[in-house]
# Entry
Amino acid sequence: MSETLTIENLHVAAQHGHHDHVLVDGVSLTLRRGRILALVGASGCGKSITCSGAQGVLPPGVRVTQGRVLHNDTTVAPERLRGRVVATILQNPRSAFNPIRTMADHARETLRAVERLDGDWRSRTLEAFATVGLEDAESVLPLHAFEMSGGMLQRAMIALALLSDAPFLFADEPTTDLDLIVQARILDLLDELARRRNLGVLLITHDMGVVARLADEVAVMENGRIIERATTREIFDNPQRIATRELVEAHMSLYPEVA
Amino acid sequence: MSVASLDARASRRRMWRLPIRDSWAVRIALFIVALLAIAAIAAPWIAPYDPDAVDLARRLQSPSLSHWLGTDHLGRDELSRLIYGTRVSLGSVALSIVLILALAIAVGGLSGYMGGRIDQAIMRFCDCFLAFPTIVLALFLIGILGTGMVNVIIAIALSHFAWYARMVRGLVLSFRQRDFVLASRAAGASRVRVFFEHLFPAIMAQMIVLATLDIGHMMLHVAGLSFLGLGVQPPTAEWGVMIGDARPFVWSMPMLILWPGLALLLSVMAFNILGDAVRDRLDPSLHGDHQH
Amino acid sequence: MSVILAARSVSKSYSSYSLTGRSAPKTVLRDVSLDIAAGESIALLGRSGSGKSTLGRLLLGFERPDGGSVAFENESVSGLSGERYRHYRRSVQVVFQDSLGAVNPRHSIGRIIAEPLRHLTDLNEDTRSERVRSLLAQVGLVPDDARKLPSQMSGGQLQRVCIARAIAPAPRLLVLDEAVSNLDLVLQIQMIALLRDLQARLKMAVLFITHDLRLVQLFCSRVIVLAEGRIQEDAPVTRGLALRSAEGRLLQDAILPARPVHRAPAFCD
# Structure
């Protein structure tokens, strides 16, 4: 039995005056090491909130009302999850970095958070930066976020995620803000890392092209619920639900010569 | 419709509601400010006596039914002077703020729009004002301009406007490259129209927040300068003047200092509490107004 | 075919200011020439930093080129004034990428759409609101939306508002600056369908600035590849388009797969 991470019956609600507005309505997912699970759906379907809800990093006014996260059948509190079991990469790398801190500062902070900051942090950071293809890693360390391009920042964020050595990775729209050339390279990188490090990945995206490129399995969300889950191939070949069909059809209409 | 937009709608609705329902502190503050406004506007009708009517026969009286708060060293009715003093305090602060906003929008707007050398020159000029504490600067300006209420207003405006001008400039710079400003130019609006249709209302909202937070502080300036004999001159009924007048009697009639002091304390606190509440309401940076 | 708007060997560079003074200027566009004829649909394709958005801004008259000129109906845009300027503004309109940032959050949808009508036409208020209603219908919104505020609409709806505003003065050229990139894929396809339909009905030329070659094939008849501030390739869009320039190949190779690849199917829980 491989290592697993299970989100069980997650409910998330936003408070509006006296009543709650349900954003995530009983989502259950299981990630396995070495597998990439895509969570797809239209904007506002609750896929990103599921990701932040599981990690306990919801915006103010939004809270988890029910549900838990299990690491190999043991319940884990969100704050024990972050960094140790799950590393995260986000859509907008620019806002994810503190503008007045250098990449070296961020690396140290990441390691400190998982209690792995020691004498050879520098060599491990350089190794991680080299792994994600940041050329001349030594010169990246003293840089600030504003001195780097979007693609470099996304690589740096992946490097920081790797530093924590967490077995699972949540990637929330990791390439949405990047142009297609950079996107292709970042996806190649994620693919390779997931295989080499045997990571279990939750990939949140609206782009079925990203799903086709990377995912083993797909869960489709609509109105806070998972309405369909299947292998990537089945989702493309034989979508069952209307929302799924819409996603696949919209995607296929971009490829007139294939369809 | 996404959930985030529901959120934004709710926050917008909340935004325009008066901050009455917040906390007891805000309600009391609002009550005090309303009381001050009524006192200032209706002073001639509600004040029981002429605030400047001297009656030496009735000097330094304790509170009684005919003089609720007693009389001062010239036999003037303390309550009437307090009520008329509201006019001077609020009026001079209001005029100062109008002057500050006009100066700040002109100077900051010019700086932000022109850019380059002109911007640099204007900002260094503003830095000279920012380098000194406002009260020191006000004292210095009074020294040049001479005493009197008009000069107090000018001094307060000149000692404060640079803070506002810097902020206007920052806002103009940040808005100038925003897509909705470019879209307005594409829609054929001239620079002047872009400014008044798009930038001015957004800037004013921020300025009002800042000004509300500053009202209390400026009231203290007016009273402080008058207390020192540099501002409003006796016999005008003004809280700072009243405190100054009462100084020789601090041991024999301490309540002559107490009344205007208390009035000043309560109004400064009320405006500060209200300023915080208004900022919480209007400051868009505190609202999650965006969505995805 | 008559040329509406042309860039004539334009170049543009920016320098940044810091504490130590002015940095060396960074050249964004070098000697770019481009003719846009009536009714044409041209894609301006390039990765971020290629200079494609800067070229758009020059064509829209938001900035002036350092060298060369932008000509509207054979007249330099920087020299236009009065009625000629108004004619240029009416004729060339834009839709931006970030719809939420492209509208004033304090204005109602009706006022936003009417803005070009107020500045660029002599319509009176009644005719304007009549026109706003018909514009809302043309972009698939309802008349009641005119009273809403931007924060009450979703990203996709708001982009429709921006399109309505852009087509309000009946432009002859619509510049779409990454106008669908912020939307999710289903909405992108819907928006492209709307734009294609509007283009055919209103007989506008379109300059579609994008980094996504897939969308180009859906929408445009000619593609111009931009890299490092220079035009690399100018090709007609045909079925089975194959770009030849090095940059064009890179952009084409970066297209994501249509169907699932290489990862073996696995059991599902």
